[in-house]
Structure formats: structure tokens, C-alpha cells
Specification:
Layout lengths: L2 H23 L7 H8 L5 H36 L11 H15 L4 H23 L6 H25 L5 H9 L9 H14 L3 H7 L3 H6 L4 H23 L5 H13 L3 H25 L8 H19 L2
Helix pairs in contact: 1-3, 1-13, 2-3, 3-8, 3-11, 3-12, 3-13, 4-5, 4-6, 4-7, 4-11, 5-6, 5-11, 8-11, 9-13, 12-13, 12-14, 13-14
Amino acid sequence: MTARLWQPLCLLALIAITAMLFSLAVGSAQLSAAQLWAVMQGQGDPLARTMVMDLRLPRALSAFAVGGLLAVAGALMQVLLRNPLADPYVLGLSGGASIGALAAMLVGVGGLLISGSAFFGALLSTFLVFGLAHGSGSWTPSRLLLTGVVVAAGWGAVITLMLALSPAERLPGMLYWLMGDLSYARTPWPPLLLLLLTCIVLIPLGRSLNVLARGPQQAAALGVAVRPLEWGIYIAASLLTAAAVTTAGSIGFVGLVVPHMLRLLLGNDQRLILPACALAGGSLLVLADTLARTMIAPEQLPVGVITALLGVPTFLFLLYRSR
């Protein structure tokens, strides 16, 4: 990479580190910089070490991974559909994952089984949308988008029906999951590893993605294998979204606002946009989750509420600026 690409990435990496440290220090019990430094060295008060290493650090790493996955998936969807308003949930992936998770909650299971059910539901929605959009011929971006919107509407109706028929004692947990919640995110390493591997794999494809963003005919004329690349983008974005939803539930606007904002600031070079989305999306969700657990401490808000409150005015402003 050239210095033009490295400089904004270094700045975003610094912002990400600052957001992580801020998340570790801030909460219902505040920690000073000296206390946090002592904890990082394995020293300090045992209670502070437990609070940081067992509670705040796994949650902050999970938030960073989920935010990065959603932002990268959003950037890929916008390239695939050639639509700056596309986001990871536009194809019904979140609805499929929600159906799986809510079904597991209704049965009464918990933990990994809920995550596994959500992941299975997202993959089922992926294959359903792709199969319906493909039909007996081939799919186009507009056909894929319309199919995803219809499937998402269908999932929404099923979710409403499930909530209406659910026992009252199970409704709070189901609603929190639907709004996006990181309270029970304790295994950040799988999504973090997936985010890292995705960036490693996709960055070399940046030039092909840049050409594809200009249109399939121009990409084919320049020697890009358009159809396999489009399939790869769709599958990758679906897997990233499924992993994110499995970890934290349904969190909106991160995959929509972050890529859109970065393109306005940094241009359309996917070699820069994709790693920048991973860093900026992760930082945004870490800060949003910190705000969610401190605004009304010791009570906590679902992080999806915070991202919506931040995302709606930000996106309207970006839309106004770019008209």
C-alpha cells in the first residue's frame, strides 16, 4: 500500500485503540488511567482486574468485532448492488437470524444453542433469497435487492407473530435480542478472527472490486470474472452478517452509515475502504456500547437503540450533503 492508503488507516487504528481504552475505563465504576495501566500489567486491585478482564474487555472486543463485520458487509453489499443505500440487513439476513434465535428462546434453550440457531436462520435466509432471485435464469442486483426486501418483510411478519404468541416471561429477552444487545457477548475471538481473515482475503481483491463497482460490463471488458466475484461477495457479506447477528443480535445502521461516510471522506478505493470500515465500524460500536451501558447506569440500554439514535441523523446529514 502507498502512504495515501496507510495514513488514514493508521489514524483509524489510533481511534480504535482510544475507543477500546475508553470503554475499559468507563462504566458504573470508573477507573483512572493509572488503575487501568496497572490492570493491563496484571497488577492492581483484584476487583478492578476482574471487572476489566472478565467483563469489560470481552464485551468491548465483541463490540469491535461486530461493528467491523457489519461495516465490511455493508461495504460489500454496496459494491454488489451498486447502491450506496444498501446495508447488510437489506436482504433479510437479520430477519432469518431473528427467527432462528427467537425459536430457540421459545423452546427454552440458551447460550450457544441460541447463537447456533441464529446463524442457521441467517444462512437459510441467504440461500432462500439467492434461490428466489436466481429463479430459472440469472439474478441482477435489482432483482436480488427486491427479493431481499420482500423476504425481509415476510420475516418481519413471522417475528411479530412469534412475539404475539410468546409467553410473557420470555418477551423481555426476545425483545432485547431483537434490539441488539452485547450483555452476554463473552466469546469475542471467533468474530475477531473472522474479521481479520476477511480483510486479509479481500484487500488483494480491491482492484477487482473497484472495477466491479463501475458496472459488470466494464468489469468483464477489463478481464474480471464478474459472476464468480459477485457470488463471492454475496456469500462473504452473508457470512459476516450472520456472524455479527449471532454474536449481538440485530444492530442497525452500522453497515449503512460507516461505509457511506468513509466513501465521502476517503474516496471509492476498496483497498482502503474495506480495512477502514473494519476499524471505523468497530470503533463506532465500541463507543455506542459504552454509551449504552453508562447512560442510565446501573441499568443498560440495548446497543441497537444507540446506533439507531446516532445513525438516523448522521445518515440524513450525509444524504443531504451528497445530494
